[in-house]
């Protein structure tokens, strides 16, 4: 195995982060990253299979953690007694719990802001180009499960179809990550997410409980 100079990997990742943030994945130059790190392109390929491998090394952990965070919360709620689930929009304790959960997500994003900036704004050309889609799919999956488990008639009555459910879940997730697209401060993000939550909660309640 070739000897690796201590600190080179860390410097490569730091320079790669700046290059990807400045130029996006497609516009980023491996040669520029290597030069800025004081090494050669060969040193990068020794550590990472290719350009996408380098990009993924920067974002993979954060992407997986956030997705898991979303899924665990949705799964935990879906396992509650049906009568509790039916009170989704009228339970003050759940409302406070959900706000704490949303704050935890905001904290995670702002603790690793550059990684999420890459995922949301700079990932075209990588397997993370549609990073938000699996999260929207999870939201849709558990929304449909909620409808089925609680026996809600929102679909059977015709008030909404599965296409509208899909659109609303996708719109919510897209709107959530506007905090990154528009470089909001953490304080601005907290206000934005609170307003987004209020809007969608009232809308879902209107559909589910007319």
| Residues in helix, % | over 70%
The coarse overall form would be elongated
- Structural category: mainly alpha
Secondary-structure element string: HHHHHHHHHHH
- As a percent range, the share of strand residues is under 5%
Radius of gyration: 21 Å
Largest sheet: none
- What is the strand tally? 0
**What's the tally of helices?**
11
Parts with pLDDT < 50 across at least 5 consecutive residues: none
- Count of distinct structural domains: 2
Calculate the mean pLDDT score and round it: 92
What gap, in angstroms, lies between the N and C termini?
67 Å
Please tell me about this protein's structure.
The chain has 210 residues and is an all-alpha fold. The chain has 2 domains: 1-47, Homeodomain-like (Arc Repressor Mutant, subunit A); 59-208. It is built from 11 helices and no strands. It has helices at residues 8-27, 30-36, 41-47, 51-78, 82-86, 92-111, 113-121, 132-150, 162-176, 178-181, 186-208. It is elongated and about 65 Å long. The model has no long low-confidence stretch (mean pLDDT 92).
